[in-house]
Amino acid sequence: MTRYIRYHSLYAAIAAHAERKALDLVACRRLVRRCEVLMAALHRDAETAEDTWFPHGVDRVRRFRTQELDLARAADEENLNQSYSPRRWGF
Prior knowledge:
The chain has helices at 5-21, 25-45, 58-61, 71-74. The protein is mostly helical. It is globular and about 35 Å long. It starts with a helix and ends in a 17-residue tail after the last helix.
């Protein structure tokens, strides 16, 4: 079993949803970016002292966490260098 199974499952679910809803390229990319931010933020909430491995993105999402997650700013596609990922399609 791969440690990335959560991400493989996430991308499969995103693809199925995008097909079902007939999302265009922009909407699909927005969904991917927001889901990646949420996945990293959720992992951060589950961190324990025993965690020695963090999935990609946890370190990049931390700065968007205050009392609440600023999802729109974290996944912003217009200012890539200020978002969680400098790449259009995220991680």
